[in-house]
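Here's a chain:
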Amino acid sequence: MTQDIDLTVAKKDLLEWATRRGAAAARVGDPGHLGDAVAGQRPEDLLPQVRSMIVLGGSAPRAGEWLSPRVEVMESIGTADRMTTVGSSLARHIEDTYGYYAMCVPTATDQDDKAFLDFPAAAIAAGVGGPSLAGPALHPEHGFLYLSVILTSLPLAVDGPLDAAVCPAPSCVAMWEEHGTTPCTAVCPIDAGGCLGGELDDGLFASRRYDAARCRDRVYHYWVPGYQAALERTLDEPDAARRKMILYGSFFTRTMWSITYSNVSQGQCFECMRVCPVGSEKRALR
C-alpha cells in the first residue's frame, strides 16, 4: 500500500496529530535499535510486522506538584495514563487512516513482572530523550516525561537519537567537580542506602551504579508490590484487631486506590527527577 501513501506527509500528520493531543515530544525511532533486548522484549516480539517505532513523551507532573512540600501529592497523582491514551488513539488513527498495523505498547508489566518493552531505550532510539545518570530518558527541554510507544508496520523515516548529550547538565558537572557528586546521586546515594551512583569524566557520565531492586521497592511502595506485601502480612497476623488495622489503615487503602482507581504502574518516588536541573526552567514559575 506504500505506493498509495506519501510517507513524508503521513509522518507529518501522525506526529502533529499526537502533539495536538498533548504530546510534548513525538519522534520516530528504528525498532532495530532495540534488537539486543532480551527475548520477549524486542519490538518484533510484540508486533512481528513492525517497521517503525513512534515514541511520544508528555504529561509530566505540573510545576506546582513538583514544588509541593507534601510528598503525598506526588504519591497520589498519576499522569502516565494520559500518554497511554494518546498512544492508543494514535495506533487506531494509523490503522483507520492508513491501513497499517499499529499497537500501543502496554505500560503495565508482563510475565515475571517485567516491562513489555524498554521504554527509556525506545525514547533514546527515537531522540525523545537522552540517557541519564538517574536512569529515565531526559528530554533536553522538558526533562522527565512519561512515555508512550507505538509500533507499526507503516514504514516511516527515522528521526534517530539526539546528537548532543542531555545529561549531565552544566550545573551537575560543576557540582561534581566541587563535591564529587551530582544532584540525583546526592539525593539517593547508593553507598548510603540509596539507589544511584556513578562517575563523571570530562563532562559526561562515565559509569553508573543502580540498585534496581531497592529502587523498585521505593518507587512502587504502593501499587501491586505494596498490595502483595500488605496482604502477606495480614494473612500471617494472628490478632484480629491488628489484621483489621492493616486492612483499614491508610497504607492498604492507598495501595488499593493505586491499583484500582489509578490502574497504572504509578510510581511514588520522584526525588532524583525533582532535583534534576534538566527541564527545571519549565518548573520555575511565579
Notes: The chain is about 40% helix and 15% strand. Residues 189 and 210 are 10 Å apart (CA to CA).
